[in-house]
Amino acid sequence: MTNAPEEPDGHHEPGAGGSAPDAPDALDAPDTPEPAKAPAVTDHGGGVWSIPVPIPDNPLGHTLVHLIDTDAGPVLVDTGWDDPDSWQSLVDGLAACGTDVQALHGVLITHHHPDHHGLSARVREESGAWIAMHPADTDVVRRTRSTGPEDWLRHLTGKLAAAGAPESHTAPLHRALTDGSVRTLPGSTAAVPDLDIEPGALLPLPGRRLRAVWTPGHTPGHVCLHLEEQHPEAGRRGLGRLFSGDHLLPGITPHIGLYEIPGSPETADPLGDYLDSLDRIARLRPAQVLPAHQHPFDDAPARAAELRAHHEQRLLELLALLTGRERTLWELTEALSWNRPWARIPFGSRNIAVAEAEAHLRHLLVRGRAEPVHGSTPATYRAA
């Protein structure tokens, strides 16, 4: 585990257990590495394949979309980013697996982010396949579709101002609102799912035994999918295989921020949800984890323990900053340890860093280890 938490990107925080191929902001960071080269389509045995689907202009490189053979036809786990090249990679990958889009029976979405749910609408249009998602993330999809990008930007600008961000940081956001240059958000036209994924339920995959495991934290409705079947490789210890989405990755810490839904309750504790979800997955002890990024790995309990230790260390660092001094959220974010000096962190990544710090601060507040200073504007906090 790295000594200092890394700088986050929009979906994941590199580090916490090894070097990571992703960097915070692919467009702004001058020393961003080249995207990881996509692997070939992989046959994992037992009627399971992975298809790398590119994420444009993102150092993560690709999403690993998984294909599961069932008695009713093939089913996808996630679909990938909505982009012509990504679509073609999915089509070519399905062909390499011996099938095509039209043959798809269903789509299981681990969470609503556009690198996982982006192509779902086109898959459904081409195949008639159903789409299933946890209802908490379906709610985010509906809100995103019905909320204009200007409203989301106003929400972000208001949160940054409340955090104590300087005018020099919020000014570009205000300019975008006044000159009409707000960009459409990824996911603003994402497909509304047909079916709800119910936690603990066996999913409708004839001939397979796939169980939904609710793992909130990265998003409110993130799910892992546990294939409760003997691993095709003899001698492996553990029960079956786990499609982990972004919840459990071999060398990247998933981004944990507040659930960014305007009007969401201030009692929400995404980090607490994530830590509980790590424990839930560790108890499953799958023989192998098939994540949505990087590569398959073993020993889910050990990786879960690494991630928990990473966040516990982050909480201790934050608590130390709050001891003996009142600070705004922005001041806390500036003072936290990142993988480069604050002055070198790009604009967009600073917003994500604030979200990371806010989720950790919220966890301390919920646990009674920190408290707001009443009457302070912008809000300041201190150790309880």
TrEMBL record:
<dbReference type="GO" id="GO:0016787">
    <property type="term" value="F:hydrolase activity"/>
</dbReference>
<keyword id="KW-0378">Hydrolase</keyword>
<dbReference type="Pfam" id="PF00753">
    <property type="entry name" value="Lactamase_B"/>
</dbReference>
<dbReference type="InterPro" id="IPR036388">
    <property type="entry name" value="WH-like_DNA-bd_sf"/>
</dbReference>
<feature type="domain" description="Metallo-beta-lactamase">
    <location>
        <begin position="62"/>
        <end position="293"/>
    </location>
</feature>
<dbReference type="InterPro" id="IPR036866">
    <property type="entry name" value="RibonucZ/Hydroxyglut_hydro"/>
</dbReference>
<dbReference type="InterPro" id="IPR050662">
    <property type="entry name" value="Sec-metab_biosynth-thioest"/>
</dbReference>
<dbReference type="InterPro" id="IPR001279">
    <property type="entry name" value="Metallo-B-lactamas"/>
</dbReference>
<protein>
    <submittedName>
        <fullName>MBL fold hydrolase</fullName>
    </submittedName>
</protein>
<feature type="region of interest" description="Disordered">
    <location>
        <begin position="1"/>
        <end position="50"/>
    </location>
</feature>
<feature type="compositionally biased region" description="Low complexity">
    <location>
        <begin position="19"/>
        <end position="30"/>
    </location>
</feature>
